[in-house]
Amino acid sequence: MPKIEAKQKVVNEIKEKLERASSVVLVDARGLTVEQDTKMRKALREAGVDYKVYKNTMVNFAIKGTEFEALAPHLEGPTSVAISYDDATAAARNLDSFVNDFEPLEFKAGVVDSVYYDASNIVKIAKIPPREELLSRLLGSFKSPMASFARVINEIVKKGGEAAPAETPAEAAAEDSAE
User: Fold this and answer.
1) By the 8 A CB rule, do 107 and 99 touch?
2) What family is reported (predicted)?
3) Is residue 122, in this structure, part of any structural domain at all?
4) Is residue 141 very low, low, confident or very high in pLDDT (cuts 50, 70, 90)?
């Protein structure tokens, strides 16, 4: 296979991944040991994140004209690409644990849900909990007021439905002014 066709195949592979991606995070992995790199790749794979080192020129060709084009200035030196498909924060969140553990690893930039973030903001994105956790928090906040409301209704039913009639705001204001 001629060289140009091999390069085009790699560019097309990257483009294909980017079309399905909800986020792309670039990291500089210079200085990682083989053991650290293997551990990180395994964890990312288990989290559903594609992690690969591509030539910067190949990535540059692939991102031209896409929402990921803002990453082009960061494609200098060794660059690893982490692509997340379902959970937009998965790549940043999973890499963040390794950035803290493996000193040579550092964020360069990323695009999450079509929005460009520099390295410092990718760290902030990495702190966002997974979707499932956010949903459970939301449901928990709904559950508490509903449970309190249900207890009040149960007490009313137990007393035979004899609850004191509710005052209208006008009646409450009249009582306050009379005092």
Assistant:
1) yes
2) Belongs to the universal ribosomal protein uL10 family.
3) yes
4) confident
